[in-house]
Amino acid sequence: MNIKSQKDFVSGLMFMGIGGAFAWGATAYSLGTGARMGPGYFPLLLGVMMVVLGAVITFNSLVIERAGGDKIGKWAFQPLIFIIGANLIFGVCLGGLPSIKLPAMGMIFGIYVLTFIASMASAGWKPKTTFILATSLAVISYVAFVKILKLQFPVWPAFITG
Amino acid sequence: MELIANLSLGFGVAFTPINLLYAFIGVVLGTLIGVLPGIGPVATIAMLLPATYALPPVSALIMLAGIYYGAQYGGSTTAILVNLPGESSSVVTCIDGYQMARKGRAGPALAAAGMGSFFAGCVGTLILAAFAAPLTELAFKFGPAEYFALMVLGLIGAVVLASGSLLKAIAMIVLGLLLGLIGTDVNSGVARFSFNIPELTDGIGFVVIAMGVFGYGEIISNLSKPEDDREVFTAKVTGLFPTKDDIKKMAPAVLRGTFLGSALGILPGGGALLSAFAAYALEKKLGTKPGEIPFGQGNIRGVAAPESANNAGSQTSFIPLLTLGIPPNAVMALMVGAMTIHNIQPGPQVMTSNPELFWGLIASMWIGNAMLVILNLPLIGIWIKLLTVPYRFLFPAIVLFCAIGVFSTNNNTFDVWMVGIFGVVGYLFVKLGCEPAPLLLGFILGPMMEENLRRALLLSRGDWSVFVTRPLSASLLAAGALMLVIVLLPSIKSKREEAFVED
User: Tell me: the pLDDT tens digits for A145-154?
Assistant: First the structure.
């Protein structure tokens, strides 16, 4: 048996997996009856529906001919890791990590870190232009979010502000 | 006339300095993201939502609405000058708009898009104002069974009109519905699927999902493509005004586009994108007169019609939101979120309980459209300059604003981790060819659907036939079934695939 559409084959399996997990999870809650739906009723219904949909999608991907095999293609790991990483580290900068006693470094520091990490996601980034970009973003954010919109952020590192 | 009294109340609200300012900020931002390819209204509205906490609800909604319809104006600029859709709803504008620009007629193309959009925006707003009251009355006749049926219809509409695989779109909706159920069940108090994580008992924030899937997912997939050389026709924008002959050709196209867009905007699943596609298809079907430039080679009708339609559609898609409380597309789903943040329960009661908000928002759309014409025609040069900013400067800024937006929603880092997860998921969806818009719609409607299903079945003592014995609910479900049948008919099915491949 040949996979005619790689994309659909994988998404079908994904839907079956997630649907199954939700349906299985829903059985842990009381189902109730139609007239008195329990917390498990609707999720179970949807979970089962999703498994069925996933199965049909997978089945179709094995049967219906598609031009070029509908390949998923290469994963862009560089952007994926740097973009998501930049976001996560920005969160660490703002909130700190109490588990390893890392203090909150504040928004301004976080902006520089985020801009540098995110810029590395694209090929051909230059430290100098990135620094200029980070500085202007820091100024804009400080004025817009802290001064004008008055959002509550730790702006400076915790050991400076105390 | 009640309508006039209502509208004057609305203009009274919209003409206050603060609301004028926020309408202006909204349309400027909308134009900005419209011009810039790679960021759409969904991600932008999600990003700015937390920033509106401190604003009065009217101002917040006026600004967020401005972003949506403003983006429809800006999108055409990029489509015409760079042959890239600045906004997905401007995909079809590329076809003839770019050809006009190559022939040195960028000015008339931009003018046709701008003036068509303005006309369509005004008509769309008028329709919104006129239809809101009668539809609201109808909405009060709705019981839980009708609401459930209406949501089913809305969700079917969303998948039928989505591009790509129908089954995958339905599966994405179901996934969205399930994600929406995470958190504490309002009836039993049971925390569902929360894995004992305290933050999850409140449910997943929709800002997190919208930003992760639409913001980060798209940035990552944009970066994985090589940066294309943009050829911007900056120097060639001279003589904005269309010739008499142009006007003669575009005027009927604008009218048809406006009409079609207004009608399709109201439909569940409709909105700007669908309207633009349909309007272009209609113009093509009508054919060209002898001596007229064929479509695909720079026909002004191919710019005027879809641009009018997407703007009309973006205005009228507010109708189901404001009258029934049911979002017809992903942007409106975010507006539901915005209203909830400000303690306004979307639905038919908004008009009576918050008339200033309701009519103020509508009136602001007129003002916003007028601002947009000025922003987009005389000041076009500024936006053209923006197009020369390379993506490598833009995306770190987008990532930053997303991260700040996410953090400020709840001021905790948990949301930042969640958005990271959803960013990965969003990229996965892109790779697997699963469209995220139906997911977001399902996510917003999940809890509402469950609640209405529960109530309907409680009233009927567990009898599912209540959905087909009540006439209103039965006809809504029948309409949904009909839509599914039509789209599955072999002849329509191949046409539908063709229509979305055409660009």
Answer: 777 767 777 7
Looking at the DSSP bridge assignments, the partners of residue B177 are: none
Interface mutation target, options B156, B167, B467, chain A, most CBs of A under 10 Å: B167
State whether residue B317 is helix, strand or coil: coil
From residue A45, how far is each of A11, A33, B444, B480 by CA, in Å?
Answer: 20, 12, 18, 20
Q: How far is B399 from chain A (nearest CA, A)?
A: 7
Q: Give yes or no for a contact between A42 and B458, defined as CB atoms under 8 angstroms apart.
A: no
Q: How many domains does chain B have?
A: 1
Return the closest-CA partner of residue B227 out of B48, B411, B84: B84
Radius of gyration (C-alpha) of chain A in whole angstroms: 24
Q: To which residue do tokens 């014995």 refer?
A: B469
Q: How many CB atoms lie within 10 A of CB A67?
A: 7
Tens digit of each residue's pLDDT (9 = 90 or more) over B11-30: 888 888 989 999 999 999 88
In chain B, which among 41-60 make CB contacts under 8 A with chain A?
A: 50-51, 54
Helix, coil or strand: residue A51: helix
- Is residue B153 a contact partner of residue B480, using CB atoms and an 8 Å limit? yes
B13 token code pair:
């609200």
Q: How far is it, in rounded angstroms, from Cα B179 to Cα B306?
A: 35
Chain A nearest-CA residue for B420: A84
Q: Which pTM was predicted? A: 0.80
Residue B63: which region, alpha, beta or left (left: phi > 0; alpha: psi -120 to 50)? Answer: alpha
DSSP A61-110: HHHS--GGGG------HHHHHHHHHHHHHHHHHHH-BGGGTBPP--HHHH
Name A36's Cβ contacts closer than 8 Å, sequence gap at least 6. B458, B462
Question: What residue numbers bound the domain in which B105 lies?
Answer: 2-501
Mean of the pLDDT values across residues A94-99? 75
Which pLDDT score, from 0 to 100, does residue B42 have?
81
Could you give the CA distance from residue B320 to residue B332 in angstroms, rounded to a whole number? 9
CA distance B61 to B20: 12
User: CB of B501 within 8 Å of any CB in chain A?
Assistant: no
Best probe of the B interface among A90, A109, A116, A146, by most B CBs < 10 A, is: A90
Whether B10 and B18 have beta carbons less than 8 Å apart is answered as no
Q: DSSP characters for A142-161?
A: IIIIIIIS------S-HHHH
The continuous run of DSSP H or E covering B265 comes out as: helix B244-266
Sign for the CA dihedral angle at B452, B458, B462, B465 comes to negative
Nearest-neighbour CA in chain B from A100: distance (Å): 15
Beta-carbon-side half-sphere exposure of residue B160 (alpha carbons within 13 Å)? 24
